[in-house]
Design goal:
Blueprint (H helix, E strand, L loop, with lengths): L1 H9 L6 H43 L8 H12 L1 E3 L10 E3 L3 E6 L2 E2 L4 E2 L11 E6 L23 E11 L4 E4 L21 E4 L10 E4 L6 H10 L8 E2 L5 E2 L8 H4 L28 E2 L64 H9 L5 H7 L9 H10 L3 E3 L2 E3 L5 E3 L2 E3 L20 E7 L1 H4 L12 E7 L19 E8 L13 E8 L2
Parallel strand pairs: 8-18
Antiparallel strand pairs: 1-2, 3-6, 4-5, 6-7, 7-11, 7-21, 8-10, 9-20, 10-12, 13-17, 14-15, 16-17, 18-19, 19-20
Helix pairs in contact: 2-3
Amino acid sequence: MRRAGRHLWRSEEGSVAPLVAISLFALIGAAGIGFDYARMAGMDSELQGVADQAALAAATQLDGKTNAIARATRAARQLIANETRFANDAKSGAVSGTDLTLVFYDGYDRANDTYGTATTTDAAATIVKVTTAGRESFFALTPVVAALRSGSITASATAGLGQSICKVPPVMICNPGEPANNADENLAFTAVAGLGLKLITGNADAPGNFGWLEAGLGNGAPGLAALLGNDTLKVDCQPVSGVTTSTGMKTSVMDAFNTRFDIYNNGNIGCSGPCSPSTNVRKDMVCKAPGNSCTGAYDIPANFYQPPYPPAALKSDGSEDPSIMGYPVDICHAVAKKDAATCGVIGNGTWDRAAFFRVNYGSTFDWQTAMANAGYTAATVTRYQVYQWELAHPSVTVGGVAKGISVGQPLGNDKAFGQPANGVAGISPSSGIDRRRLSVAVINCNATNLHGKTTNVTVTKWLDVFLVQPVAKRGNGTNAQTDMSDIYVEEIGETGSGTGGASTAQVIQRAVPYLIR
């Protein structure tokens, strides 16, 4: 017995058992903390997922139109039916739309990471912040069991709607109506169908100046020329607002515009693909044409449209009529560069309709009735409407003689063509692409202090315009009216996705919601 007692006393077997027994409390506690923290982190992720998806759903409706906020709120609330499986605060496991708080703002300053002004106005709401109701997790294993809790955990997310416009040439113009002292980058520009715009170059921030946008050109002037001339625009989409302007006037690419009029005076003008004209290329130019095709370069005839100064409608007897007449500029813009125009960059929409029809259809043609039959008002019919009428009526008989864009107009050894005559097939606007219609970005250049390449420039409006005449030098010396840096267009209206006569094939607008924070 003594020997057994001494053996037991001296034995070291199981000596760590007390230490292990004591350590188990700490080990179990650490495991409990890890389990509860993981569950708390999981609940936070669940709530953040709710906030993120609700914010994105709400942002899809922020289009600035009527009921945008109501639609955004409804989209967020009806989307959400999320289960918070890691919460055990005696509330329902589901997080529903009623557990969300939505606040709308008129903007977000990314540079300073600050919100704009909270708003309840549909047109102003561009940003939405969604916050979930608080949920709690009672600790399951962390001592003391169920006596401690995580506290209220919430999640929030902020989202906006990124919009881009695709399949448009990278062209911008300075707001023609912007005052010199304007400081508002969002100053509105109201488009009025039918008004002529005399776009200019040389003064970077002058109203009516036109220039280029960055669009993944990659090849300088040749790349830009291809974008302006090609049928298919292999170009990056432009953001609806926040564009980047491109440096330089690049006058060498101006000829690319003329491919839309069937003019290829300088070869293929850098086109890497088809550079087709419209099927209506009515213009004030002639070319050498012994037959029904153009065999030489196009030129402005000596007797081009230029009314006596001060400009007025040409005499009805035809004594002042030009030899060839395309769609003319507004009468107030029909002046030589040495003379003062009687209007500014924006015309008044009054062009010599009578002279146009007299030169192209003869003095006996009842054009007023023709316009009325087409649903237009003769006194105010726009050039774009006449362009469309001529597309629908390529040949009309006047006094037993065929007239219209399908009939060449001889002028000595030259001829004017209203349809393509250079061997390149035209594209009919009815196919979805109108080669004489452009969508351009309107920018308040004074307010943005636009000079050269500028990033994140606000676009006040995307405007559809009609190319009235080719880029060309008209007149010489003091009689010069235009040169190779002038573009004349007519306002059609605000750019839309398949609206206002535009086709979805020509203009595509994409809107994608994105998370800000």
